[in-house]
Amino acid sequence: MHIHILGICGTFMGGIAVLAKAAGHRVTGCDANVYPPMSTQLEAQGIELIEGFDPAQTALKPDMYVIGNVVTRGNPLMEEILNRGLPYISGPQWLAENVLQGKWVLAVAGTHGKTTTASMLAWVLEYAGLAPGFLIGGVPENFGVSARLPQTPKQDPTSVSPFFVIEADEYDTAFFDKRSKFVHYRPRTAVLNNLEFDHADIFEDLAAIEKQFHHLVRTVPQQGLVVANQQESLDRVLARGCWSALERIASTTGWEVRNVDTQGRFDVFFNGERQGNVGWELLGEHNRNNALAVIAAARHVGVAPCITIEALAEFKNVKRRMEIKGEVRGVTVYDDFAHHPTAIATTVAGLRAKVGKARILAVLEPRSNTMKLGVMKDALPDSLRDADTVFCYSANLGWDAAAALAPIHHKAHTFDDLPALVQAVAKQAQPGDHVLVMSNGGFGGVHQHLLQALQG
């Protein structure tokens, strides 16, 4: 089959392209901006990329057009496809029908921690010799790729692994399918990490997202497993109905963490019985809860908790999750994907636990659709209180960042000009400081600019 992917350079659609190519399909694709690193990765796979959405691309005559949710009505190529009655399908549906069908799908959903938890789960299954396939919205360091098909397990070299781990996003599927992506995946094992209001561009309120999570729970079979955090919003989701086995995390009647020491080690208990002690490099309560969810999910496919605990000790976090970009003159620069006030607060708190009383200079770009709309702006000051100084890039916002940060005005600085922000951070940074950059985009290459300015 020849598929042509519209919006191919997004992480999810790029992952579908890699999987389709590995499965033997001919894959071409287009996007508004075709540039490294995604373009380089795709071209290395032998995937032809076209910049823009010229209707002339229909001359490729693919068997199917796979449509990413970045594509809207009015897109010239999409309009040509519709006018000519050509076959098209959403990315999640194509994935479900061509890759996930017949697989034991382990889906990780939640407002925060999906990428880390899905990466962790894929690594645990790999460590246990189960050779899973996966599609993750980041690059897990243990694998070096964001997607792959199921492989041949060590235990049975004549077969292909039935397991597939997927980061299950609640964002809508396509312009013609407004259900959440994860409704297509039909998992046998579903992890519900947490649930808060996000994606204000498509969801009216938290209740609208809870409804989509309820739809996900409805797809889990009776012999499946739902692993859910102990959280009020998830309680409401589950109160609507749960037809599968249910295990709770952060709960005394399920999976819980006890005895956290100063190095971040902790004991894992299930229904009051100790399962083992996790020793790893990750920090924070959120990551400990991620670990509990992974231990529960892996146990469902037959991996004993003691094996999962061994694997977690060798887990390497995903790129852009408190990733050190460099150190210059005693100043360490980090990159993190945090883009929601809760994620920002968790990230800053995690770094604070790591560095103690050392100064943290937080550099923030409110770039997500929710943040650009200003829906979460009132929660920003409190999320940044653990930082010593805050530098906010306020270009292209529809709200006044300085006014929003007024409650912490004594340590907050806003900039519409990126070079000016870089120079301000470099001027204030001192040996021993930690510069924490947070954005869900490229942020204009600010990390490298900061390192160069610090060197100068």
From TrEMBL:
<dbReference type="Pfam" id="PF08245">
    <property type="entry name" value="Mur_ligase_M"/>
</dbReference>
<dbReference type="Pfam" id="PF01225">
    <property type="entry name" value="Mur_ligase"/>
</dbReference>
<keyword id="KW-0573">Peptidoglycan synthesis</keyword>
<keyword id="KW-0460">Magnesium</keyword>
<keyword id="KW-0132">Cell division</keyword>
<dbReference type="InterPro" id="IPR000713">
    <property type="entry name" value="Mur_ligase_N"/>
</dbReference>
<keyword id="KW-0961">Cell wall biogenesis/degradation</keyword>
<comment type="pathway">
    <text>Cell wall biogenesis; peptidoglycan recycling.</text>
</comment>
<keyword id="KW-0131">Cell cycle</keyword>
<dbReference type="InterPro" id="IPR004101">
    <property type="entry name" value="Mur_ligase_C"/>
</dbReference>
<dbReference type="GO" id="GO:0106418">
    <property type="term" value="F:UDP-N-acetylmuramate-L-alanyl-gamma-D-glutamyl-meso-2,6-diaminoheptanedioate ligase activity"/>
</dbReference>
<feature type="domain" description="Mur ligase N-terminal catalytic">
    <location>
        <begin position="2"/>
        <end position="98"/>
    </location>
</feature>
<dbReference type="InterPro" id="IPR013221">
    <property type="entry name" value="Mur_ligase_cen"/>
</dbReference>
<comment type="function">
    <text>Reutilizes the intact tripeptide L-alanyl-gamma-D-glutamyl-meso-diaminopimelate by linking it to UDP-N-acetylmuramate.</text>
</comment>
<keyword id="KW-0436">Ligase</keyword>
<feature type="binding site">
    <location>
        <begin position="110"/>
        <end position="116"/>
    </location>
    <ligand>
        <name>ATP</name>
    </ligand>
</feature>
<comment type="similarity">
    <text>Belongs to the MurCDEF family. Mpl subfamily.</text>
</comment>
<keyword id="KW-0067">ATP-binding</keyword>
<dbReference type="InterPro" id="IPR005757">
    <property type="entry name" value="Mpl"/>
</dbReference>
<keyword id="KW-0133">Cell shape</keyword>
<dbReference type="InterPro" id="IPR050061">
    <property type="entry name" value="MurCDEF_pg_biosynth"/>
</dbReference>
<dbReference type="Pfam" id="PF02875">
    <property type="entry name" value="Mur_ligase_C"/>
</dbReference>
<dbReference type="InterPro" id="IPR036615">
    <property type="entry name" value="Mur_ligase_C_dom_sf"/>
</dbReference>
<feature type="domain" description="Mur ligase C-terminal">
    <location>
        <begin position="320"/>
        <end position="441"/>
    </location>
</feature>
<protein>
    <recommendedName>
        <fullName>UDP-N-acetylmuramate--L-alanyl-gamma-D-glutamyl-meso-2,6-diaminoheptandioate ligase</fullName>
        <ecNumber>6.3.2.45</ecNumber>
    </recommendedName>
</protein>
<feature type="domain" description="Mur ligase central">
    <location>
        <begin position="108"/>
        <end position="298"/>
    </location>
</feature>
<dbReference type="InterPro" id="IPR036565">
    <property type="entry name" value="Mur-like_cat_sf"/>
</dbReference>
<keyword id="KW-0547">Nucleotide-binding</keyword>
